[in-house]
Design goal:
0% strand, 9 helices, mainly alpha, 191 residues, 59% helix, globular
Length: 191
């Protein structure tokens, strides 16, 4: 199933379409957009990036497969970084932290439901890990660099502007990065 999880969540939750970030700028082209645009633009990629990072380990994947704690996903995935992430997104979107927290939990619930649905009955942890590793390149071009999520999540590659560049060379470099981060060199599967 080759589904872009970022677009699927944006559509399912009826948020405005997300914009890819320009590698040469620190924000979207439309800086005059409404609060809802800024919220979805910052929240969806940020939460999905954190979820991808959380699911790099088998323990993280097992947690989302076995846990049905829909009100606690934000705490589970972000841990002690939760308040900092909420604060960054609240500042970027000009929303109150309590509203941001509720909406972030809804995004995580939807993402985890999407992953469980994709995995099917068997819920193969390796399939989920590979799926999320490949989704990373779909997510990062939409992540506003102004949030500095790489600094918050202790992963400097998140703020690297090469993820926001288009073209054949950037695609090849990102594909190679995916292969090395997976720890496997495989042919494209039907993910």
């Amino acid at each position: 199933m080759s589904q872009n999880i970022l677009i699927a969540i944006q559509e399912k939750l009826k948020y405005p379409p997300l914009q890819k970030m320009d590698a040469n700028r620190r924000d979207t082209e439309t800086s005059e957009s409404i609060k809802e645009d800024h919220f979805s633009q910052s929240a969806i990629p940020s939460v999905l990036t954190a979820l991808c990072q959380y699911c790099k380990t088998d323990a993280g994947i097992e947690s989302i497969i076995e846990n049905n704690s829909s009100s606690q996903w934000l705490t589970i995935v972000l841990g002690n970084k939760k308040q900092a992430v909420i604060g960054k997104i609240a500042g970027y979107s000009e929303e109150t932290p309590s509203i941001v927290e509720d909406k972030l939990n809804a995004i995580l619930n939807t993402a985890i439901s999407n992953i469980k649905e994709m995995a099917g009955e068997g819920k193969d942890t390796q399939l989920i890990k590979l799926y999320l590793a490949r989704q990373r390149n779909n997510i990062l071009p939409y992540l506003p660099s102004a949030l500095q999520m790489g600094e918050l999540l202790d992963d400097s590659t998140l703020d690297d502007n090469t993820h926001k560049m288009g073209g054949p060379l950037s695609s090849i470099i990102n594909a190679l990065g995916n292969q090395f981060s997976d720890g496997q060199v495989t042919k494209e599967s039907s993910l």
